[in-house]
Structure formats: structure tokens, C-alpha cells
Design goal:
With about 150 residues, the chain is mostly helical. The protein folds into 2 domains: about 5-65, Winged helix-like DNA-binding domain superfamily/Winged helix DNA-binding domain (Arc Repressor Mutant, subunit A, Orthogonal Bundle), CATH 1.10.10.10; about 85-130, no CATH class. Helix content is about 55%, strand content about 5%. The protein contains 6 helices and 2 strands. It has helices at about 5-20, 25-35, 40-50, 75-85, 110-125, 130-145; strands at about 55, 65. A two-stranded antiparallel ribbon has the order 1-2. Helix 2 (about 25-35) packs across helix 3 (about 40-50). The protein is elongated.
Length: about 150
């Protein structure tokens, strides 16, 4: 299960991707549009800024903009950044591998074999789905509702 923080980060990035790329969005604007608590959003955007995904501008025309194109920001990247390893078992983590305490042999572990397939399929989806895809999904849903 993903954290609320990761969910909000994805929603904030999607809002920035939908916005005019030349006009920064205010935190209050994103918070209201996405129903994210403003103080929590400030922390999230600061994290995303430190990680090079968004940029902030000060002053009258200030706010936040995407620093990377939306089609280069993957769900997997954001989830790993906010929530940590994307693995159902520590012995399957690409970024925080740890041998399971109760496992005698990874090669013979039936549980690991099944969850290895789950982890790989999950990574395939998460690291191929981008923030730009959320724009396409929203457009597709609007067409389906109208049609």
C-alpha cells in the first residue's frame, strides 16, 4: 500500500503537469484543486524540489513548476523516493536488499519465487507509467463519460 504522502506527491505532480508550463502554480492553488492539506503539500513540494523534480519561483509570479518533463517522471521513481523500496520482501528489494531472517535458502524459497514475479510485474508497471500518463487517463475518462 502506498502512503498518503506518495499519493499526494503524485497528485501534485499531475496538477503541475496539467498546468500551463510557463505559469507557476501556487501551493494554495494545488492544495485546493487536489484536496491536499496545504502544510503537508509544502513539505512534499520541498522534498520534490530537493530531488530535482520541481522548481520554485519567488515573488508576485511565484509558485511551482515541473523541472523535468511529465513523461520522464515515473510512478516508480516517486514511490521509491517517498515511500522507499518497492518490494514485498526485503530479499527482493533493488535498493535496500536484506536477507530474510527466517529464510534458509533464497534459491529454494517458494514464497520468494512467487513474490519475485509479483515484484517484477509491479516494477514493470510503475516504472513505465509516467505523470504524463495521468493526463491521458483523465482525457480518456472524460471522453468515456461524454460518449
Amino acid at each position: 500500500m502506498i502512503s498518503q504522502k506518495a499519493k499526494y506527491a503524485l497528485r501534485a505532480l499531475a496538477a503541475l503537469a496539467r498546468a500551463d508550463s510557463r505559469r507557476p502554480m501556487l501551493i494554495a492553488e494545488i492544495a485546493e484543486q487536489q484536496k491536499i492539506p496545504k502544510k503537508f503539500l509544502e513539505q512534499i513540494l520541498l522534498d520534490l524540489k530537493h530531488r530535482g523534480l520541481v522548481i520554485s519561483k519567488r515573488g508576485k509570479e511565484g509558485g511551482y513548476l515541473l523541472l523535468k518533463p511529465a513523461d520522464e517522471i515515473t510512478f516508480g521513481e516517486i514511490l521509491r523516493m517517498i515511500d522507499g523500496p518497492i518490494a514485498p520482501l526485503p530479499c527482493l528489494s533493488h535498493t535496500a536488499y536484506r536477507k530474510c531472517d527466517d529464510c534458509l535458502s533464497e534459491a529454494e524459497c517458494e514464497i520468494r519465487h512467487v513474490f519475485a514475479r509479483v515484484a517484477e510485474a509491479t516494477r514493470d508497471v510503475l516504472f513505465s507509467a509516467t505523470i504524463a500518463d495521468t493526463l491521458n487517463e483523465k482525457n480518456r475518462a472524460a471522453v468515456m463519460l461524454a460518449g
